[in-house]
Design goal:
Blueprint lengths: L6 H12 L21 H19 L4 E2 L2 E2 L1 E4 L4 E4 L2 E3 L4 H22 L2 H6 L1 H17 L2 H9 L4 H26 L5 H9 L5 H21 L1 H7 L2 H4 L10 E4 L1 H4 L24 H4 L20 H13 L6 E4 L1 H6 L3 H6 L4 H23 L3 E7 L6 E3 L3 E12 L5 E8 L5 E3 L8 E4 L4 E11 L6 E11 L5 E10 L2
Antiparallel strand pairs: 1-2, 3-4, 4-5, 6-7, 8-10, 9-10, 10-14, 11-13, 11-15, 12-14, 15-16
Helix pairs in contact: 3-17, 5-7, 5-9, 7-9
Length: 482
């Protein structure tokens, strides 16, 4: 205690220090009850929902010849994409498709913001479907809020139970369809009916169904806010000419309630009547009037409901709309906005995307109908065969990427007096490979002993299709011991 500090002051200081101060670093968010709306953007959102879900749930049931049209058969190590058959060695094509998808996302984001999030992201799509089921069973926004606040009763239990039962059935069907892309869905359906599902199919149907049920039924906007990385780095692809959902602050402020017949010019009010409808319809619960926020998924629901309010008030539409930051600040017309879309960033993204798509299509068009891999027998470097011949042993893998049986002729070159032998080939060195199948062919190359110096000598295997007249050449070496 200092000389200038009296005991009373010291006691007060000690008491203040001893009081615990609790700071909540995370505030629990209130449940969001999105109000249903209608309008231009809502219609398009449901169009994309229907299109994506018809594709997702329908494609596995489409047959292509005698097989499933789209099937990633991990057990057989073959990917079927309509008339295209890909092997693990064709991973470059799947990589190219993923790169093209990523660049497409960058391009669309640079032009019109988070279109993917608002209209086609599985999280958004399944949340909308689950909300639709919830509204059909529990009622509109006000009814759902009232039901949640009410004490437990038989009526509440029936509605909640029915909703969750419908959610679970839909989620399990989604999980079943997802697994149907990796295991033939018709066989999978027969296994479900016959209660003979394997452990892995059971696990993944349950896992994907549980993820759908949890994410779309409970977590909803929390996935977009806290789990999705896209919301965090989207700003790197935005600029002042990116189309985003914007609030015209100059026209809307100052906001305030008023009657429909009120003259807003005499009351010094903007067009916004502060009804908070834009907040009520937002699936992530944000207020678009506070400016662009990373939680905004660009669905346009606030623009639709605001246009509805403006119509009722007799005001001009577009208080909340898709526009750019430059357009809002400088008062550009729609034509001026469209002229500024084709800027360097967009041109670069589009140019790279066109180049990659053209390269992928060209590569697929020129792709051979079969592949060949050559593997030396590591157990035998070289050996003497009957007739005074020196022999090297190889294994050729021929992968038939067509849907028909193919016949291939084997030959080898690179060394004088080189002879090719195979126990599984015919006399003319022809082998047969079944449709969309692969076959290992044991092959022996022979030369007269002593005809070549010791060391490694280059040879070439040529495999020629007798049906398509295509040929593939693979290099290897012939070892002559000392």
């Amino acid at each position: 205690m200092t000389e200038k500090q009296n005991p009373t002051e010291l006691t007060g200081t000690v008491n203040a220090i001893s009081e615990a101060v609790v700071i909540n670093l995370y505030a629990a968010a209130d449940k969001i009850y999105p109000r249903s709306t209608f309008g231009f953007f809502t219609k398009w959102r449901w169009v994309t929902i229907w299109l994506t879900q018809l594709f997702f749930y329908g494609i596995p049931w489409i047959e292509w010849g005698s097989r499933q049209a789209l099937l990633f058969d991990l057990e057989a190590r073959r990917f079927y994409i309509f008339n295209l058959v890909l092997y693990p060695q064709d991973l470059i094509y799947l990589t190219a498709i993923l790169i093209i998808s990523a660049l497409s996302l960058f391009l669309f984001t640079a032009i019109a913001g988070r279109l993917w999030c608002g209209y086609a992201c599985p999280q958004t799509v399944y949340t909308e479907i689950f909300l639709w089921i919830e509204a059909k069973i529990e009622g509109d926004r006000a009814a759902r809020m009232k039901l949640d606040d009410a004490p437990m009763s038989s009526k509440k239990l029936l509605k909640k139970g029915s909703k969750h039962a419908a959610w679970i059935v839909f989620a399990l069907w989604t999980g079943f369809t997802f697994v149907g892309y990796f295991s033939p869905i018709r066989e999978l359906g027969a296994s479900v009916i016959g209660n003979s599902l394997g452990p892995w199919e059971t696990f993944w149907i349950g896992f994907y169904g549980f993820a759908t049920y949890g994410n779309a039924g409970f977590m909803r906007e929390q996935v977009c806010k806290y789990m999705c990385p896209y919301a965090r780095f989207q700003s790197a692809m935005f600029d002042d000419d990116t189309l985003i959902v914007t609030y015209d602050e100059a026209r809307g402020e100052p906001r305030g309630n008023r009657s429909r017949k009120a003259d807003i010019s005499n009351q010094n009010l903007g067009a916004c009547i502060d009804c908070s409808m834009c907040v009520q319809v937002c699936p992530t619960g944000i207020d678009i009037r506070k400016g662009l926020q990373y939680e905004c998924i660009g669905c346009g629901a606030c623009a639709d409901v605001c246009d509805t309010v403006m119509d009722k008030m007799g005001y001009e539409r577009g208080l909340v709309k898709y526009s750019t930051q430059n357009a809002v600040n400088k008062g550009w017309s729609q034509k001026q906005v469209l002229r500024h879309i084709m800027r360097p960033r967009v041109i670069i993204y589009a140019g790279i995307l066109i180049f990659l798509v053209a390269g992928l299509l060209t590569s697929l068009w020129l792709r051979s109908s079969f592949r060949v891999d050559v593997v030396r027998d590591r157990g035998v470097m070289a050996r003497l065969a009957t007739g005074g011949m020196l022999e090297n042993v190889y294994r050729l893998q021929i992968m038939n990427a067509t849907e028909t049986t193919q016949h291939y002729q084997l030959s080898a070159t690179g060394i004088n007096n080189l002879v090719i032998e195979s126990d599984v080939a015919t006399k003319d060195k022809t082998v047969t490979v079944n449709p969309a199948d692969s076959r290992w062919i044991p092959v022996r190359l022979q030369i007269p002993d002593g005809s070549m110096a010791s060391g490694s000598h280059k040879v070439q295997f040529e495999v020629k299709s007798m049906d398509s007249k295509e040929s593939v050449i693979e290099k290897s070496v012939f070892l002559v011991p000392r």
